[in-house]
Amino acid sequence: MNLIIDHPIPTNVITGFLGAGKTTAIQALLRDKPTTERWAVLVNEFGDVGIDAGLLAGAGEGEVFIREVPGGCMCCAAGLPMQVALNQLISAAKPARLLIEPTGLGHPKEVVKVLQQPEYRAVLDLRAVITLVDARKIVDPRYAGHDTFRQQLEVADCIVANKQDLYEAEEVEGLRVFLDDMGLGETPLHVVSQGAVKPEWLAAAHPRSDVEAEAAACMAILEGGVHAVDESLPAEGFRCTTREQEGFFSVGWIFGKDFVFDHERLYLLLSGVDAERIKAVVLTNRGVVGFNMADGVLTSLPLAQADDSRVELITRHKPDCVQLERQLLDCVVDS
Known about the structure:
With 335 residues, the chain is α/β, with parallel strands linked by helices.
């Protein structure tokens, strides 16, 4: 791995469970970044279609490089997908800061382990791991008892209780008790709305672990390129992919540029879908629109551009992909 860097790049992991607001927090950080600095973002998504890059594009002034690792936890398979994407992103961007967003079902401890491999010690300066959490979720055993949910809190240097504007008075105190019970009472806790992570929270150093032995066993030295994901579409002009992991299902579609969706019909459809999360970047009759659904609330925002349309749903039950696909196609504007 030949990466020529003048000094180690300050690097932050922004983690949190599904719907905690990671992408919103990164959008806020990009808006507040110094306009003279080039930042890079490595995004991992649970599904295979890749949507977050479209939602993050244009979030901040100045140069922002974004690369996605779709399709499950990027640290699996000895971290190879993550290492390939990370090396390419660093080489192309040579950023002043790197933000890494693992999937909400990813394993942040393993991501940190990859970043602390000896091969990256002269390249990356791992700073604060920031975990976003929705304080309302800790009373739900499906979250509070989920191994990944707890690991995301355990690895944090800073915990951010997002969505304060939706909390009842006692819910923050309930989160504090929950963290105390986990032995995390000393971890700094901030309470915010709209993912308003402050840039100064990025600065703290993350404790370095001794990973030399594990590195020798599993670290792949990466040289040369990587095979890109085949984005070609079949004759019908769209593709559907599905995934199951840790009790969640994802289904996603990529539609070619010839598919233009009726904004109102699509909004109504997505508003009525029973899903934990919905993300989409879609070509509509009102221009390019990003859709984002968490906690049953669907929001939309105009985006500058997109080469195709991408829709992804994450559910706790196996979705009826055939019916959903038919409903999506019913939202396409007639030629």
